Amino acid sequence: MKAWRVSRLGEPAAVMELVEVEDPRPGPGQLTVRVLASPANFPDVLMCRGEYQVKPELPFHPGIELCGEVLAVGAGVTERRVGDRVLGASVLPYGGFAEQALMEVGTTFAAPPELDDAEAAALYVGYQTGWFGLHRRTSLQPGQTLLVHAAAGGVGSAAIQLGKAAGARVIGVVGGPEKAEVARALGADVVVDRHQQDFVEVVKAETGGRGADVIYDPVGGETYARSTKCIAFEGSILVIGFAGGAIQTAALNHALVKNYSIVGLHWGLYTQRDPRLVQECHDALCDLAARGLIKPLVSERLALPDLAAGVQRLADGVTVGRVALQA
């Protein structure tokens, strides 16, 4: 089969090589799948650079999530059958940026028929992260204000849709007019172009000075620091990631005097600690998809030979929605 392989660390366009490799074979509890679609995620970029908390041994095939058709099942697998259309996590080093990939049955779910392959593939990491963030680590309520940073990206676009589905008023922060249009199309009630406006002042104006009840922050650094200036009394700042490149430190005295919570979310831990909750989340997301309340935004659908350039665009911060391999 053909696969993108990373044998040395660096920028995706420099270190991803399209090569011919042997087809993967499933071990106990695993599935071999034909890759139907696999979106690029920022962890894929970080793993290419050697900067992610998960550091697969070299060489490996990136692509941490995918939608696929089951080709073979390993020993002990009874939940899935050959021909099933599934979505979920890949098993590195056999990631989704290839013609075939490996998956663990415990992190594999039925793909909803309402979504096409690329949309279904993107329902896993970004939407599960959003659901756990907004409904488990915090408790977003109808009528509350949700501020979403990087609102036109893969994780941010999911948070907008999930926030609207929960009945919240959503303020999205983006960088540039094209991304602003995307955030509006996704349903954001107010969109802030950070190149033109100060999101702190906009949030204060839009909430009568109260601030946002929940702030969804996959950026970190200065974005986090500025977010503390517009968080509501008893609000929550969700720390999702550090796409801005800087890991901030929290001024706990400020959290004390303003009575807000700083809440971390490592969604992947739930797949290890409480798989029941992950299935519950998947069922809830499928229900929202069936009702037309969420639909992953896939802006670029790329053939296998074109994928490395798309992953590099994600690394450079110039993409909107999801960039995905589509078979």
UniProtKB/TrEMBL annotation:
A GO molecular-function descriptor: oxidoreductase activity
Organism per entry: Nocardioides marmoriginsengisoli
Record-linked SUPFAM superfamilies: GroES-like, NAD(P)-binding Rossmann-fold domains
Name of the featured protein: NADPH:quinone oxidoreductase family protein
Database matches in SMART domains: PKS_ER
Gene3D superfamilies, per database record: Medium-chain alcohol dehydrogenases, catalytic domain, NAD(P)-binding Rossmann-like Domain
InterPro entries recorded: ADH-like_C, ADH-like_N, ER, GroES-like_sf, NAD(P)-bd_dom_sf, Quin_OxRdtase/zeta-crystal_CS, Zn-ADH-like_protein
Upper lineage: Bacteria, Bacillati, Actinomycetota, Actinomycetes, Propionibacteriales
Domain of life: Bacteria
Domain Enoyl reductase (ER): 7-325
PROSITE patterns registered for this protein in UniProt: QOR_ZETA_CRYSTAL
Pfam families recorded: ADH_N, ADH_zinc_N
